[in-house]
Write a structure and sequence with these properties.
The chain has 2 helices and 4 strands; from the N terminus they run E-H-E-H-E-E. It is an alpha+beta fold and about 80 residues long. A 4-stranded mixed beta sheet has the order 1-2-4-3, with helices on one face. The longest helix has 11 residues. The chain is globular and about 30 Å long.
């Protein structure tokens, strides 16, 4: 669980490259309730722009934050509806 966000679920997509982090993030978000926060942990640097673009173009989700730590990229996505 994140100390910054009260995450409902963590999705581990380490070692996977585009488009799988987005595909799996969408699948995981679809299974959550409004107000839930999904933590996505990836190793693909492209996931920063990919998840940002997906969240910007998708109704019902909000990208709360993205954290880069060495080769690990953590995204916090909230389901809003």
């Amino acid at each position: 669980m994140s100390s910054q966000y009260d995450t409902t679920e963590t999705l581990d997509v380490k070692g996977q490259s585009c488009p799988m982090p987005i595909v799996k993030t969408k699948q995981a978000i679809d299974d959550l309730e409004a107000g839930d926060v999904l933590e996505v942990v990836a190793t693909d640097s492209g996931s920063i722009s990919d998840i940002q673009g997906w969240a910007d173009g998708t109704n019902g989700v909000e990208l709360l934050d993205q954290v880069e730590d060495s080769d690990l990229y953590t995204h916090y996505v909230k389901k809003t509806e």
